[in-house]
Design a protein that fits this description.
By secondary structure, this protein is of the alpha+beta class. The protein has helices at 105-108, 122-134, 138-152, 159-170, 177-184, 188-198, 203-218, 226-232, 238-249, 253-258; strands spanning 2-7, 18-26, 34-36, 43-56, 59-62, 66-69, 76-91, 113-115.
């Protein structure tokens, strides 16, 4: 059995920063693997029981119990073991982890996953995990998490970075870095530095991701014309479209839709 329950934050300081706090439970007999496609809704989480594994080539690698993963770059095939409970903090700002630490995201995401012990003081992580384990229900656990988030909140974010992200999202990825630099009267290098610091991936990758996600949204109807949608969102020919689709899904568009791979793709990041 699997249960994914999403809660909205209640603390006024977090409402515009945290999209949701998600409780993800699986029973020990849940053996199916799940594919998570790349998404710009990033966050971090606490696995309080069981283990989380991510497929790396042909083997599965165990993830840190309390950690963050880069969900911006490539798809992940995930499975769990034991009676599994993970609490994930999903952030509205792309890779909003930068709201809670001054460590540049390019440093944090040098590896696919990082332990929260490498981001925050060990004693703070130990204390919050102890409090989460002692909490009697989801509501009490949410209060523990919100207190921790508020205590770590950094209020100085880059308005320029936020404006660039908003423009890419509004254009649904149908833009390029040179256009953004001209629009904001900055250099391409300035945009690259901002993305390294606050996102951990370069702006071209992020633009491609947003375009890919919008294409999936357009193509959710089985009767849709896939190639026509691809051209509408900014792919300039079929080979360009297929190449980028494979980067983010590991499949060609036809393989993805014809084999109904989408059935195996989790809605975890779309709650």
């Amino acid at each position: 059995m699997e249960s994914i329950v999403s809660y909205k934050p209640s603390n006024p300081l977090l409402i515009d920063k945290v999209s949701s706090i998600v409780f993800w439970r699986r029973s020990a007999d849940f053996n199916n693997s799940t594919i998570f496609l790349p998404n710009n809704i990033c966050g971090f989480g606490f696995t309080l029981s069981g283990d989380l594994f991510v497929k790396n080539n042909s083997d599965y690698q165990i993830m840190p119990s309390f950690g963050a993963r880069n969900t911006l770059v490539k798809p992940s095939e995930i499975k769990t073991s034991g009676d599994f409970l993970n609490i994930s903090i999903r952030l509205k700002i792309p890779n909003g982890l930068s709201l809670f630490t001054k460590i540049p995201m390019e440093v944090i995401y040098e590896e696919e996953a990082i332990s929260l012990h490498d981001i925050f003081p060990n004693q703070e992580i130990t204390n919050i995990v102890d409090s989460l384990l002692e909490a009697k229900n989801d509501e009490e656990k949410i209060k523990v998490i919100e207190l921790f988030l508020v205590s770590k909140l950094i209020f100085s974010q880059s308005p320029l970075f936020a404006a660039i992200i908003n423009k890419i999202d509004f254009a649904k990825g149908n833009c390029n870095v040179e256009q953004l630099a001209t629009s904001f009267s900055v250099s391409v290098r300035t945009i690259q530095r901002l993305f390294n610091k606050f996102l951990g991936v370069n702006p071209i990758n992020y633009i491609n991701l947003i375009r890919f996600r919008f294409l999936l949204q357009l193509s959710s109807n089985a009767d849709t014309d896939l190639l026509s949608n691809a051209l509408d969102v900014g792919y300039y020919d079929q080979s360009h479209f297929i190449k980028h689709f494979k980067v983010f899904s590991s499949l060609t568009p036809l393989q993805y839709f014809e084999k109904k791979s989408i059935i195996k793709v989790s809605d975890f990041y779309n709650l």
